[in-house]
Structure prediction request, 208 residues.
Amino acid sequence: MDTWQRAMGLLLLPAMKSLYRLQADGIENLPTEGGYVLASNHLSNFDPWVLAYPLWPRRRLRSMAKAELFNPLLAPLLRASGAFPVRRGGSDRDAYRTAIEVVHSGEVLLVFPEGGRRGKGRWKGKRRRRQQVQSGAARIALSAGRPLVPAALTGTDRLTRLGPMRVSFGCPVATSGLEGRSRHEAAVVLTERLMTAIRELEAGLRES
Prediction:
């Protein structure tokens, strides 16, 4: 973790602890050595910070951000935060290779399988559009040969209400039974297991 991230972590720590009463469960499930893919539900742009704090300051959290954000003003800030660009709406092989390199290098890569934030694209007078789950997190974990860890969070979509924030980490998703399957099929099965784990973590947060 670089100096900038340490400084930002210290600056925001009082707000995270006092205003938002951040609480993290399941930290013991996180691998202590080597890189891995961390996959979570996605509620707001503040999610990466909430997921990063339980790892701070020992581990650095890397993430993808849509390429449109990497303008001259935001690019230095995003890169300093550990983000790298990805082109949405199609296959971005450069971003995919970068993601695998990040995990191979021993860092933690954050991926949101649901793509965009929940609640975006609400139609007037209709239900929210369901997010299409993507298999990128599973494909990166399989290609890198590293664990895929599920997570869930609540409260980040209510920042102005100063409600409590909670995050829960699960055990790495099992990869048993994937031997002999094609890469595509293995990624699909692993993604199904991942989303089941994320939904179970979410349910646990709602009940507690």
Q: What stands out?
A: The domain at 20-207 is CATH 3.40.1130.10 (Glycerol-3-phosphate (1)-acyltransferase). The longest strand covers residues 148-154. Strands lie at 23-25, 36-40, 61-66, 83-86, 108-111, 148-154, 166-169.
